[in-house]
Amino acid sequence: SASGHPNVSRPTCSIDESYKYVFLPVCYSLTFLFSLTLNSVVLGRRWNTSLIYMVNLATTDLMYGLSLPFLVASYVLRDRWVFGDFMCRLVRFLFYFNLYCSIFFLTCISVHRYLGICHPMRTITLESKRVVKGTCALVWAVVFILTCPIFRFAQTGYDQDRYVNCWDDAIDKEFADYVPYGIVLHLLGFFVPFVIIAWCYSQVVRTIFQTLRSPPSSIDRRRRKSIKTIVTITLLFALCFLPFHVTRTLFLLMRRGQLGGCSVMKTVSICYKVTRPLASCNAWLNALLYFLTGDK
């Protein structure tokens, strides 16, 4: 299930999740189609140094898109998982691996833009293909280390002894162990990169405003274009990832500590399910951003 827990395990609080059996398959099917189409086009373009980050971003988004039909089938079958335990672990792993690779590559693009605008002379060495490729390899490795415990926690199990389900976070008896990991994952995978992107953005805005007082030039136009890219990335980042991470953190903490009343738990649970496809949309919005900003 989207939360991994169709009925949140507290005796007095049963949460109706029937809405997700239509809502989530529709969202994920559209994401699958858009992700496949747009990212394939991006990957067909010629590589140059500044495009390497975008190519890596498109690769991880494409990988993610290919895992979605399994989730669509699971929701259409009303949380029944028919693909076996290994595929359950792999699909859940790919969801988060892609999510955090996307976030890290968007952070790289923002830092790249920040250096290009605020420290143009110092960036020449950082523009080399070797440095950029090395950074990308580091991102893949770090995100793999961050997300590989999902292989351990995600698994199939019987849902109230009726049928096999694919738990997203952890089965009930392991949930207490999962929560600290989930919180650390949110902090390192989202909140830290978000602060870095916001800082880069604020520095760029400051620099642009300082240069706008001088007579217009071709450098000026390039800087305006760069600020457009950074503003778009920041808004996209906040829209896709902030609601999901805030509601998922609340969901984990409330469920672990049995905090809040039933109505609060229901609200948080619904918000978490609704914001989940929003995070998935990023798998094709990144490619759309590439076309709209003409980002070279």
Automatic annotation (TrEMBL):
Keywords: G-protein coupled receptor, Membrane, Receptor, Transducer, Transmembrane, Transmembrane helix. Residues 28-290 form the G-protein coupled receptors family 1 profile domain. It holds the Pfam family 7tm_1. GO terms for molecular function: G protein-coupled receptor activity; oxysterol binding. InterPro entries: GP183-like (IPR047160), GPCR_Rhodpsn (IPR000276), GPCR_Rhodpsn_7TM (IPR017452). It is a multi-pass membrane protein. Gene3D superfamilies: Rhodopsin 7-helix transmembrane proteins. It comes from the Eukaryota. The chain crosses the membrane at residues 21-44, 51-73, 93-115, 136-154, 183-205, 226-246. One of its GO terms (cellular component) is membrane. It is found in: Membrane. Belongs to the G-protein coupled receptor 1 family. This is G-protein coupled receptors family 1 profile domain-containing protein. It comes from Tetraodon nigroviridis.
